[in-house]
Every structure is written in structure tokens, then in C-alpha cells.
Amino acid sequence: xxxxxxxxxxxxxxxxxxxxxxxxxxxxxxxxxxxxxxxxxxxxxxxxxxxxxxxxxxxxxxxxxxxxxxxxxxxxxxxxxxxxxxxxxxxxxxxxxxxxxxxxxxxxxxxxxxxxxxxxxxxxxxxxxxxxxxxxxxxxxxxxxxxxxxxxxxxxxxxxxxxxxxxxxxxxxxxxxxxxxxxxxxxxxxxxxxxxxxxxxxxxxxxxxxxxxx
Amino acid sequence: xxxxxxxxxxxxxxxxxxxxxxxxxxxxxxxxxxxxxxxxxxxxxxxxxxxxxxxxxxxxxxxxxxxxxxxxxxxxxxxxxxxxxxxxxxxxxxxxxxxxxxxxxxxxxxxxxxxxxxxxxxxxxxxxxxxxxxxxxxxxxxxxxxxxxxxxxxxxxxxxxxxxxxxxxxxxxxxxxxxxxxxxxxxxxxxxxxxxxxxxxxxxxxxxxxxxxx
DNA sequence: ACCTGAACACCGTTCAAGT
DNA sequence: ACCTGAACACCGTTCAAGT
Lengths: 214, 214
What we know:
The structure is a homodimer of 214-residue chains. The first copy, chain A, has 214 residues and is an all-alpha fold. In chain A, 66% of the residues lie in helices and 0% in strands. Chain A has helices spanning 7-21, 28-34, 49-61, 73-90, 95-98, 106-121, 126-147, 151-154, 167-173, 175-185, 189-212. Chain A is flat, with a radius of gyration of 21 Å. The first copy, chain A, starts with 6 loop residues before the first helix and ends with a helix. The structure holds a DNA duplex (19 and 19 nucleotides).
């Protein structure tokens, strides 16, 4: 009765390691050590390290909340998108993996199905729904990219470049960048997320009204 | 007169390796071999592998075209965004790096400055310009994520899952996903990109008219 | 300063073998 | 089937040394 290894326990332990030390901090050897087994025993359950990363991503995607069924389609999408963002903020090191591995397990697909249901209830046809889903996927992934890796923190003109030696030369050659930098650095992540989200929802609604499906 | 090593030549050779073999295919040892020097000589020019990846990304960002100055602001943004997408398609293995490393060199920042100029000419204030720029950054990065890694090709309900053994059970438990899958698989990347882009531009224009800056 | 070879501390995964 | 230890073919980077 030694170790009771199984797919789920391996994925959960791997998720803990990635949350704690980042994706690069997850090695098959460290994972095995954390489970108190030999490295090669993991290969009974997963063909390679990539499969472990995919599996741990499914666990995280399953954390996305499914809204109540009686909501307006806009509010349903808002709640799903906000929950996705919260999950990303809770697992910042997993966010890049979410952008690589689509949901696959039934638990991970629950929020996708819920979103599709909302569009259908609202009268969107399948092609329009696919189009909206794609736009929302693009938006959540892009949000992870800019928000969770401090993209604008390192962006010249933002906080980083302001008081560097290069600043005078930047004002000369890139005056607009220099002027807009502070506005970029002062952005509120949550507010910008809501702004873009409403912009998408408004666009979807307009396409609907113009004859998207009826 | 041996090797004439320098920052740029290293970055260009590294870009060639990444284009050919992917990010994982770039090792300091292989890069050194391609330049016919010892691995450690690279560390005279770059502190570590990460810095080499950042440098090669700057080279790629510098490939983005800067539109003519006499264009409408919408058309300026369209042309910049399309050029970014083309650059990503030309260097698919570099796209994930573009999502991690902001433009830093003057050449890489040229298109950013051009975009800021266009917004300014159109009367956007700095805060609105920063907001639009962020939304466009989110959009281009999300586009790279979904388009260049075949996100929807592996997505259940799309091409992959259709004729698998799990299909019947999926139709039972995730009926909307099953129905919308084909529409997702049939999407035209270019058309969807244009759709989302117009949606953003329309939203920006509406915010302007409603008193964004005047 | 620029470049080197040797070494250190790791990797993922294959293999042959055990139960 | 499940798990093991040893080995292979790599890594990035430190170090001490050369010019």
C-alpha cells in the first residue's frame, strides 16, 4: 500500500508546484519527489511533461463559475468573463497555459456550455454564437497577457522608462509615447477590463439587432 | 580577426533558429555553434538566454509597417493592426514572445508612436488614447493566442472531437458545444480578425463622440 | 574587453528490469 | 499494470583562466 498514485493526484500536486514556483519550477523530477515516487512512475499516467501541464490547466479551468440560468445573456457573459479573470488572478502562473490549452474535460467545459446556452436563449444563431465566443476568447487571453505579466509595467513610457537616462532622447524621438506613458501606467486593470467587455457586448447586441439571426 | 560577434548578429541568428525550430529549439549552445563561437562568449553581449529572446523579439517588432501620415485615424489603426498580424503569421514561433516582451528599441516602438500620433490628430485625449491602445494590445495578443497555436483546432466540438469515441456522450452532456463546434471549426481567421477590429474601432469612435475628449 | 574549456547542477525521457 | 534505478543526451550558467 505505498503511494496511491493517480492522474488527478498528480495533476493537483503539479498545480501546487506551478502556483508556488511557476511553470519553469515544475520538473518531472520535482513533481515525483513531491509525490514521493520515482520520476519514471509519472509516465504510467502521462506520456510526457506537456500532458501534465495540460491536465493541471483543466483543473484550473474547472474553477470558473457557472452563472444562474435565469440571467440576461449580457449578465451571463459578464459573470463568466469576470470569473475567468478571477481564476487567472488566482493562478497567475497558469494563465499562459490557459492561453495554450483549450478546455477539454466536462468540468472545464461547463462554463463554455453555459455561455453557448445564454447566446442561444437570446436568439443568436450558431455562426453568430461562434463569432462571439471567439471574440470573448481573444479578449480573455489578451487580458491575461497584458495584465498578468505586467506588460505595461515594463513598457517604455510607463513607470519603467520615466526616470531613466534614455528619457530625454525618448521625448525627442517618441514624443507621443512619452506623453501617453503616464496615462498607461495609471490604468486600473479592473476598470479597463470592464470597459473592453462592455464594448464587445454592445457590439454583439448591435449585430443581433441588425439581423444577426432574425 | 575571428568572429565579429555583436549584439545584433547574435539576435539575428537567434531569430533564425527560433523561426526554424521554435523557442525550445533555441539553446545557448546551439546559438553559439551557429555563430561558430564558444557558448560562453554570448554572455559578453547578453546576461542570459531570456535577454536573447527579448532582443530577437525587438527585431520582429521592428518589422511592423508604419502607415502614411495622411490617413484617417481608423485606417491608420487598421493598417497597423493588420501589419502586426502579418508579422505574427510570418514568425509564428515568435508570437508568444511578442505577447511577453513589450517594444523597447526605437525601431520596435515606431508603430506605437505612429498609432499614438493618429489618435492625437483625431482629437483623442491622452487617457482615451491609452485606453484604446490597451484594448488594441489585448486584441492583437489574444489574436496571436487563438490563431497561431491552432487553439480552436484542438478545441472540443471543433474538428478534433467530431468523430471521436466521446462524441455521443458529448452531445448528451454538452449539446450546445456539440452544435456550435462546426461553426467554430469553419471560421475564417482573417474575417474574424477584421470583425473584432471593426467592433473596437466603432466602440472607440462612439466613446469619442459621446465626449471622450471634447 | 572579449573569448575559452571545464565543470556544476540540473533537465526530460529511454531502457532494461523488477513486481 | 505499475513502479524502479541507471543511463543518455541534453540544458543554462559559474568559474578560473587566457588574450
